[in-house]
Amino acid sequence: SPDKAWINDTILNIYLEKGHKGRILGDVAHFKGEAEMLFPPNTKLKIESIVNCGSQDFASQLSKLRLSDDATADTNRIKRIINMRVLNS
């Protein structure tokens, strides 16, 4: 629910290549303040890494991410960062 505080424990960090077909939802996004994107049907994503809380790279990667205000308030809830890439067709 958009009325509740941010409760997710996973961050999807999606790398976009030049020419990708995704569109930022902006004001029509369900959760305001998040960088929600819509991709065309059959868009393929490749998972490049999964970084779990407690791993050597977790704190470093988390500190580099731009998070919404709700997420920044309680980063202890975040358990993993999934780094992925949109594959252009």
Automatic annotation (TrEMBL):
Transmembrane segments: none annotated. It comes from Salmonella enteritidis. The lineage of its organism: Bacteria, Pseudomonadati, Pseudomonadota, Gammaproteobacteria, Enterobacterales. It comes from the Bacteria. The keyword Transferase applies. Gene3D superfamilies: Toxin ADP-ribosyltransferase, Chain A, domain 1. GO terms for molecular function: NAD+-protein-arginine ADP-ribosyltransferase activity. Keywords: Transferase. This is NAD(+)--protein-arginine ADP-ribosyltransferase SpvB.
